[in-house]
Amino acid sequence: MPGAAKLAELVERQEPLTFRFADDGLVPNHPRWPMIVYRGAVALPDDVNPAAVFEDLFSTNGWGDGWRNGIYDYVHYHSRIHEVLGIARGTAEVRFGGDRGEVLTVKAGDVAILPAGTGHHRLSSSSDLLVVGAYPPFGTYDLCTRPEQHAEALRTIPKVARPEKDPVYGSEGPLLIAWSDD
């Protein structure tokens, strides 16, 4: 684990990119809150374990149940929980928001924060892709891929509460403004 002092050195304040996606009939996306992307938010020098950096950063900010893997190669979303994806190694081309969403290339150091309902689908990736994911301390993980899940998702997505902290920048993070109900 890098520790708090090292984490502070590695996290670089970035302006958030925000993306809003319409319901496409299969993927509801979030009705109010945008997906947030921080490009190059985390410096990953050779002397650190990049996955451990993301795990420590996310858990420090209250996002847990972490995992290390990739991004599924099919369209899916989570209707009962938000998700953060930290790109620890490699690159990937990911379509966010469902079939009518937006294709983004993400690379090591980038972070994507997906409010409940946001579709995601890995289209391609480098062979060394490593993603660290995590979730806020409330909500229930589910995996939605089928049209018959859509109606129930429309009911559950708006009920998933806003996290208390941004997974990258903590209690001062842009997520808290972008995901406000004001």
From TrEMBL:
Listed InterPro entries: RmlC-like_jellyroll, RmlC_Cupin_sf, UCP019307_cupin, YjiB-like
The name under which this protein is listed is Cupin
